[in-house]
Design a protein that fits this description.
Elements lengths: L7 H12 L5 E14 L12 E14 L10 H16 L2 E2 L9 H15 L5 E9 L2 E6 H5 L15
Parallel strand pairs: 1-3
Antiparallel strand pairs: 1-2, 2-4, 4-5
Length: 160
């Protein structure tokens, strides 16, 4: 005997997963580390001098589960893409040689651009960069899109 579903959210979930046969969106992530030095030009304080960090990077991908593979993206593919397009460039190097003003925020934007436009990585949902174990910067898809003219209705302002 079929049990009647009365909760609207359960009905929607039942339809999506049973009736429509669509796979759900799932977010996966992979953590990376690299060692690099930098200095912040025009900054008055300790970060204006040359110093190094053991950086940590979390790249998160959000897509539907592929019906054939059962995966959002193979972790080894994500590792290869991020390593070739980001880690190999920054690890044991001077970040200022690549990014003019290498704040955590600017490095994060550079990473997003490399992965999206150079590596053509699909489904980037969020990227988090730790400069130290207690200091991080995070950008998600909505934040990145807020800088485009398309998303902001022709103005380069974030949506609220």
């Amino acid at each position: 005997m079929k049990e009647k579903i009365s909760n609207p959210i359960e009905k929607q979930c039942f339809y999506i997963h049973r009736e429509s046969q669509k796979q759900p969106f799932i977010t996966i992530g992979k953590m990376f580390t690299f060692a690099a030095c930098h200095r912040l030009p025009d900054y008055k304080g300790p970060c204006g001098r040359w110093h190094g960090h053991e950086w940590s990077l979390l790249v998160e991908i959000k897509k539907r589960v592929d019906e054939k593979t059962g995966m959002v993206l193979d972790f080894s593919e994500l590792k290869k893409t991020v390593t070739e397009n980001v880690i190999d460039i920054l690890d044991h190097n001077v970040i200022n040689d690549t990014i003019k003003n290498p704040t955590a925020e600017n490095i994060l934007i550079w990473i997003w651009d490399r992965l999206m436009f150079d590596a053509h990585l699909k489904g980037i949902h969020k990227i988090t960069l730790w400069e130290t174990p207690t200091s991080k910067a995070t950008m998600d898809k909505k934040g990145m899109l807020s800088a485009t003219k398309l998303e902001s209705g022709g103005k380069n302002e974030p949506h609220s």
